[in-house]
Specification:
This protein has 507 residues and is α+β, with helices and mostly antiparallel strands. Helix content is 51%, strand content 7%. GO terms for molecular function: heme binding; iron ion binding; monooxygenase activity; oxidoreductase activity, acting on paired donors, with incorporation or reduction of molecular oxygen.
Amino acid sequence: MWLTIILTLLAGWLLYKYYVSVYELWEKRGIPNYPSKFPFGYSYELLAQSNFVGYIHDKMYKKLAPNPMFGFFVMRVPMLQIREPELIRFVLTKEFSHFRDRMFIKLSEKDILNQHLFSLDGERWRALRVKLTPTFTSGKMKAMFPLFISCAEAFESLIVSKIGCEVDIKDLVGRLTTDIICICAFGLDTNTIKESDHKLRKIPAQLAKMRFIDKVLIAIMQAMPKVSCKFKARFTPKELEDYIVNLVENTLEYREKNNIKRNDFLDLLIELKNKGTIGDDMKNEIEEQKCQPFEFTNGLMAAQCFAFLFGGFETSSSVQSFCLYELAINQDIQMRVKKEIDEIIEQHGGLTYQAVKEMEYLDMVISETMRKYPTFPVLMRYCTKSITTPYGYKIEACETIIIPVWSLHHDPEYYPNPEKFDPERFSAQNKESIKPFTYLPFGEGPRMCIGMRFGKLQTKVGLIALLRKCHVEPCVATKIPLEIGPSPMLTIPKHPIELKLVPQFSA
C-alpha cells in the first residue's frame, strides 16, 4: 500500500515537473517574460474568458513596458506579445511569409463552415484570398449599393415607430445589418426589420458566446499543443452547418434554374465557381501567384457566406452601437455629424454611393469609434518558420504571436487622453501623424480584413438612416461609463446599450 502511494506521488511529481518545465523557456532564450504558474500559465482568466481579453493583455502590456516583446504561457502554450509598432510591421507585413497563419488549432475539414478565409491557413488560404479579393472592390460595393438602400428605407420606417422609446441600440441596428448581409450574401429578403425572430438573425449572437464544451476542447489543445496538430477540432454545430449549406444550395439551384442575377456577393461566388475568377482581369494575377488549385464547391461557398454573416454582423452592429452611444453622450459631435449628413444628401438629391463617400466627418467619427472600441481586441499570428527579429530575439516555429490592438488604441503615447472620444484624431490634418501600426481595427498586411469596405459601408448606411430620422440621447438605463464584458475574442459591452430615440430637431 505504501509503495503504491509513494509511486503515485512520484508519478504526480514527475508529471508536474514535466508540465512546468516549459516555463523556463523564455529565461533560457533571454526574452522578457510574465511569470507563469501551474496549471494555467499566465492567467486563469485567459483560459476561462472570465474577463475582457483586452484588459487581460493590457495588464501585461503595461507591466512589461517598454520591452518591444515578451513571452508568457497559456497553460503550456508559449506565446509572445509584441507591442512595438515596427515589430508589429515586421510580423504583419515585412516578414509575413513567416507569420501567415492565424492559429495553432487546426480545424477539421469536415467542419465545412470553418473553411473560410478567417480560419484557413497555408496555401489554401492564399489561393482563396487571391480569388476572393475582387469581390470587395469599390466597384462591386457600388453595384451592391441599391440593395443597401432598399434595406435602409425599411429601417427608417422602423426608426420612426420607435421615436420616444428607449431601445437596446444593438438589437435595433442589428436588424438592418442582418437584412443587408442576408440580401447580399444569401440573396434572401429576411425582413428582420419587421420580423426579428428570423433564424439567421440569431446565429451571430449564438456564435459570439463560446460553449462550455468548446472551452474544454481549447483547454485540452492548449495543454497539449503537439497533440492538437493531429487532433482536428470541430466547433460548428452540425445542425447549423446543415442549415447554412442547404440554404446556399437551394438559393444556387433557384438562381441557376431561373437565370437570376442580383449583383450581390452570391452572384460573385457563382462566377468564381463557374469561371475560376471574378472578372477576366484577375486571370493573369492568379496565374502569376501560382496558387494551389482547388475546387470551389457548394460547401466552400457556404463557408464564405457564413463568415460574411458572422463577421459582417458583429463588426458592423457593434461599431454602430458603440458609435451611437458616444454620440448620445457627446451631443456636439452628434449635431455636427447630423448636419453633414443632411447637407450632403441635399446636395446629391438623395442618399447615393458618392454622397456617402463625401461624408468626411462621419468617417472620422466611425474611425474614432473603432479606435476606442476595436471589434477584435487582439490579433493572433502563428509562426510557421523560425526567424530572428531586428531586436535580436528569435521567434521559433509553432509559437503564437499576440498583437494587443486594444492596448495600442488606448496607449497615451499614441493617442493622448485615449478615453476621450475625439474624431479630430482622424481629420485630414491629424491622421497623417498617427504612428503606423498603432491603429489596427481591420488588421494590416495581406491578412487584413477582406470585407473592410463592405463593413464600413453598411455601418455608414445604418448610422445615416437612423440619424436622418431621430436624435439619440442617454436614458436612465444607459450605463455611463460603458463597461466591456468577458468574451472569447470580441469587444462586447457587459450590459446592453440602452438609448432613447427622440424626435428630429434642427441642427
